[in-house]
């Protein structure tokens, strides 16, 4: 059966019953129908809970992904089945990938979060609210420039873009304000995808409604003719934008097929944003649970590094355990095997591709957190392939546990859950990749590129060099960096698979996200508005007269 067919056959518990498992009363739960709810922002820590945090990440994936979310959900179900009270904290899917190539983000098989159609499409409207808030701000900025522009905001230096929650390459570069005096001031601009917007990052890093408004007020929308930054607070728009997001900031509660409470909130991409669900969602789960299982997008070089160097600083807690998801398919792909041949046993390619896993293990070890490798089982995997991965990990002093979360749900993930519980009780010595206060922005980029990616050197474009000089003058050197790069490679070239060394890592420019609290470094040709593939997933979707959807997955 397909994922959506399995989800359609599920019997969901009323969402207030799921909330009751967490000890939440009716005054803390705002129902969105029978199966979804928003949670209060003032949920306090429950005494007597272990408050353990488990971070699930992965190796560099194939274009279809390798089931990190499926393993995450299976692990959460398994922990609860083994009587370890657990809550899952996940990101919200973007409709860009859903209708594009990668699909949704609600797991698969018998390890799914439901109602999967709602979550993968409109859900509780968070991404639509973010899109509206972002574009309202853009409209207010253009109106300000046209009307009086008291701050002398230079139309050529407005960096705030409009957004859409779709993959639309035609909107990457546009000209607005055409049509005469009352149509605005013509200027060159573009669109980002909503998941890459600064408002998405702000929503995911704010710890209260007050913090949300303060962060929005700090957003830099552009520069004056004298090259001085202009903020939303200077323009006086922060309250209006916060009002649009007053409901979106509340975490969303749903459930797995096995009725494990799951908080799904925020959805920044990890290749062009920081790739973690909201601090509020993770903190709420931590407050209520013995174990919180959460994820970071794409490979550990992206999402996990950003969790540990960006989100952790706001959350105030590092993971007690890290799980690196690996698959035979992805390792063989990184070892040079073709996508069409990934269902065949290819031990030489697997051996070569193991370098990718080994670098991720080395990187995660450098943060000082206990870790385990989860081998996500696919039906085409051979015993010899699985054993090769286990033997490789054993040589590095790391356990590798095979899981079958897709076919067996939590029952197929018990061995991993038992190992996670053991590791979570071990001492850790968390150490970030750089010193956020002492290292300047260039040093931070170099430490990530050299120590995490394996680069020999970092090359900054002339534009990037000039930006760093200006950012230092503005006092932004003490902010973390968020590198936007391809998810398929440690390099900025998606074709260089495996674990390349002796390469130059190229930064073409920087984007200040002062409200979010970090600086984005644009590597290679990474786009902040994705495009659709030759045959988008949308082509294979159908809906009948009764509203039944097929082809979603």
How far apart are the first and last residues' alpha carbons, in Å?
10 Å
| Average pLDDT | 95
Q: What is the count of DSSP helices, taking H or I runs of 4+ residues?
A: 19
**Overall tally of domains:** 3
The CATH class of the largest domain turns out to be Alpha Beta
CATH architecture of the largest domain: 3-Layer(aba) Sandwich
**How would you classify the helix and strand content by structural class?**
alpha/beta
Range of helix content: 25-40%
As residue ranges, the low-confidence spans are none
Taking Cα atoms only, what radius of gyration do you get, to the nearest Å? 23 Å
Q: Could you please say which CATH topology of the largest domain applies here?
A: Rossmann fold
Overall strand count: 25
* Fraction of residues in β-strands: 15-25%
| Major sheet size, sense and barrel closure | 12 strands, mixed
Write down the overall geometry: globular
CATH homologous superfamily of the largest domain - what is it? Answer: P-loop containing nucleotide triphosphate hydrolases
